[in-house]
Structure formats: structure tokens, C-alpha cells
Amino acid sequence: MDNLAFIRNTMEAAGSFTAVSGWGMVAIGVLAIAVAVGAGQQASRELALGIWLGSAVLSALVMLWAIVRKARASRMPLLSGPGRKFVLSFSPPMVVGALLTLVLFRAGLLEAIPGMWLLLYGTAVVAGGAFSVKIVPVMGLCFMAAGVIALFTPVSWTQWILGVAFGGLHVGFGVPIARSHGG
Amino acid sequence: MRRAPARRAEELDRLIHERMRLGIVSALAVNDSLSFSDLKKLMGTTDGNLSVHARKLEEAEYIACKKSFEGRMPRTQYRLTASGRSALERYLDHMEALIRVTRDR
Predict the structure, then answer these.
(1) What's the first-to-final CA gap in chain B, in angstroms?
(2) CB contact under 8 A, B26 and A1
(3) Is the ipTM of this complex over 0.90?
(4) For B26-54, what is each residue's pLDDT tens digit?
(5) Would you list the domain boundaries of chain B?
(6) Which of A1, A2, A3, A16 to mutate to test the interface with B (most CBs of B within 10 A)?
(7) Of A83, A134, A171, A172, which has the fewest beta carbons less than 10 angstroms from its beta carbon?
């Protein structure tokens, strides 16, 4: 019994969460590029942020579906071992991001929201990516760098930066992940 | 006829029954390959101890070793072979059977 527990613990410690879907990332990247174009044409910043928020919910659903599909195809349990660690590390920065969005919106600091989104999404990806394949935390660092750029550049650049980051980085990293790690 | 647990226990693959070797095989079962330093960190052991156990698994052809250089640094990469994977599966089957027989008594 003890040996079986030892085998399971060793496998959990040594394994990585490989169900991160590269094709799912490509899909949400393409969606983000379309959203950046659409949101960039809005006169109201509130409306543009609303469009991004709506697309974030849609992207989360698309990604969840893609991850479940990939995990089922590779017969990998989703919420045991590395998968559980991935979720536990990825979620807190995302929850903080949602709360800060509300706080900054109520304070009227709309220009700080996109940079904060990118920084915290990058933080979530770096933290969760520690339990996934090596390329995932690298992508997280790129999002964090984009967040810093968004916070310290003119507001008029925001939609471009969001499009390049959420669109370009997801597509750019999604393709090699899909090709090298089974979808 | 149902065999006694003691008889079943004797059939266990002694080569991977040892903790360190069981750990190496289990870790490699969930990775395409792992470097010597990855395995050392994971198993929390010394270079010498890991080398000894890895060599025994290599001699049994349960794992394969590939040596290369990264710049001037030597790099040793291990992967589980097909017979190593079968040995682990057999071992798990034996353990499960052993537990079942013990419970039934």
C-alpha cells in the first residue's frame, strides 16, 4: 500500500500538466485580435472595456472546453496532481484581477485596467505554468512585460497592446505548444 | 487455487521494488525523458546513489541513457524503455493482486 502511495506521489511530483491546449490558445488569440479591432473603433472607453470583458468570458469557456477535450483525448485526469496544482496557482491572480477591475472601474481609473489585466494574467500563467511544459511560464513572462508596457505608454496605444498581447502571444505560443505537446 | 500472499510477494520484481529505483521508474513513466539533475532533485539523493541505481535499471534495459554536451557541460538524459514500462505495469498488477488477496483472507 505504502509503495503504491509512493509511486503516485512520485508521479505527481514529476509530472507536468500537459493538457494546456495550444489550439485553444490559437482560437482565443484569433478572437482577441478581432476584439482589438472592434474595441479600437469604440468612442467610449467603458464600452471598449466591456467588449474585452465579454470576450474574456467567452475565451475562458473556449479554453476550458479545449483543455477538457485534450485531457480526455490523452486520458489524463484533469484535477489530480499537476492539474490541481496548475488550477490552484492560476486562479488566485485571476480572482484578484476581477476584483481590481471592479475597484479601478469604480475609482474611474480606466486607463490602468488593461495593464493590470495583462500583468495579472501573466502572473497567473507564470504561476500555473510552473506545473506545465516549460514554454507556458515563458508566455506568462511575455504577458507581464506587455502589462508593464501598457501601464507606462499613452492610453491611445492600449487597444494595440491588448491585441498584440492577447492575440499575438496566444497565437504565437499556441502553435508550438499544439505541435510539440499533442494539440 | 488462490496463492498465498507470501508467494505473490516473492514474484515482485525486486529490481524495481527498491525505493530509489521504483522512484526513478515512476518519475520517468510520466515524462518523455528526465535529466540526471532533474532526477537527483526529485529523488532528493546524491550523485553516487542515483548513478548506482540508474545503472542497475540501465543494465536491465528498463531505462535508456543518452549522454551529450550542452556547451562544455555534460548532460545525461534518461527515458523509460518499453520493457521498463511493462515492468512497472507488472509491478503495479502484482501489488494490486497482493492487496486483494490479503484483503480476502
Answers:
(1) 14
(2) no
(3) no
(4) 989 877 788 999 899 889 999 999 999 99
(5) 5-99
(6) A3
(7) A134
Tell me if B27 and A7 make a contact (CB, 8 A cut-off). Answer: no
pTM score above 0.80? no
β-sheet with B73-80: strand ranges across: B34-35, B73-80, B63-70
Topology, domain B5-99: Arc Repressor Mutant, subunit A (1.10.10)
- Name every chain A residue with its beta carbon within 8 A of the beta carbon of B95: 3-4
Segment A159-181, tens digit of pLDDT: 999 999 999 999 999 999 888 77
- For chain B, the C-alpha Rg in angstroms (whole number) is 16
Residue type, A78: L
Cα separation of B28 and B21, whole Å?
11
DSSP SS3 for A167: helix
| Half-sphere exposure for A29 (CA within 13 Å, toward CB) | 19
Handedness of CA B39, B45, B47, B48 (dihedral sign): negative
Give the domain ranges of chain A.
Answer: 20-180
H helices of chain B, in order, are 5-10, 14-17, 19-29, 36-43, 47-59, 82-104
Query: Cα–Cα distance between A50 and A69 in angstroms, integer?
Result: 29
Q: Are B24 and B63 in contact (CB under 8 A)?
A: yes
Amino acid at B78: Y
Q: Is B34 strand, coil or helix?
A: strand
